[in-house]
């Protein structure tokens, strides 16, 4: 900020203290997240697919269309994810007996095991990364970020996001 004020006196740099740090934190966390997934042998897209199915609750089955909508990706991206996960035997696909044009996607026992192990590893890592903040500070930060996110969703028109 100081360098910008020196180079461009009068420039409004107040937002930099927050926004630059949020971007740096996001980059650090994303890089760390990918390293954890690499160690586990699972890619981000497959983790996203399996997580969506796992969160859906028993019988851990959704339509391909629901997966596309819930993952905020294109139909083509969903198809690629399904092919990869099916090859790894994490999911099975079949036609809906009640609606022949609809494809159902179901988490297999292997998929269930891998997403639960992945979730445990990611959550353990996140707890480790947050050790620099007390529980109260973590709660305070979560509240402030929730407020900021809600306001940003409103200001940017990103209504499909959920807080």
What does this structure look like?
There is one protein chain. By secondary structure, the chain is mainly alpha-helical. It has one domain: Arc Repressor Mutant, subunit A (Orthogonal Bundle). The protein has 7 helices and 3 strands, in the order H-H-H-E-H-H-E-E-H-H. The protein has a 3-stranded antiparallel beta sheet. The mean pLDDT is 93.
The secondary structure category is mainly alpha
Spatial order of the strands forming the largest sheet: 1-3-2
CATH superfamily descriptor: Winged helix-like DNA-binding domain superfamily/Winged helix DNA-binding domain
Query: What shape does the CA trace take?
Result: elongated
**Distance between the terminal alpha carbons, to the nearest Å?**
30 Å
How many domain modules?
1
CATH class, anyone? Mainly Alpha
Q: β content, as a range?
A: 5-15%
Radius of gyration: 20 Å
Helix content class: 55-70%
Total DSSP helices: 7
What is the mean predicted local confidence, pLDDT? 93
Uncertain segments: none
Task: Look up the CATH topology.
Answer: Arc Repressor Mutant, subunit A
Named at the architecture level, the CATH assignment is Orthogonal Bundle
Order of helices and strands: HHHEHHEEHH
Would you report the number of β strands? Answer: 3
Summarize the main sheet.
3 strands, antiparallel
What is the compact description of this entry?
The protein is mainly alpha-helical and 163 residues long. The protein is built from seven helices and three strands, in the order H-H-H-E-H-H-E-E-H-H.
Question: How does the SSE layout of this entry go?
Answer:
Blueprint lengths: L1 H6 L8 H25 L3 H12 L5 E3 H8 L3 H13 L3 E6 L2 E9 L1 H21 L5 H22 L7
Antiparallel strand pairs: 1-3, 2-3
Helix pairs in contact: 2-6, 3-5, 3-6, 4-5
């Amino acid at each position: 900020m100081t360098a910008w004020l020196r180079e461009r006196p009068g420039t409004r740099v107040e937002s930099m203290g927050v926004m630059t740090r949020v971007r740096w934190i996001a980059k650090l966390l994303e890089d760390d997240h990918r390293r954890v997934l690499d160690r586990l042998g699972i890619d981000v897209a497959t983790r996203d697919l399996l997580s969506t199915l796992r969160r859906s609750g028993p019988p851990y089955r959704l339509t391909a269309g629901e997966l596309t909508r819930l993952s905020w990706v294109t139909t083509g991206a969903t198809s690629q994810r399904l092919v990869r996960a099916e090859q790894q035997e994490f999911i099975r696909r079949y036609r809906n007996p009640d609606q022949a044009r609809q494809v159902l996607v179901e988490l297999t026992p292997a998929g269930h095991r891998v997403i639960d192990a992945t979730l445990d590893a990611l959550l353990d890592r996140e707890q480790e990364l947050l050790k620099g903040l007390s529980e109260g500070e973590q709660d305070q930060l979560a509240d402030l970020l929730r407020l900021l996110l809600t306001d940003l969703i409103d200001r940017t028109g990103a209504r499909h996001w959920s807080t």
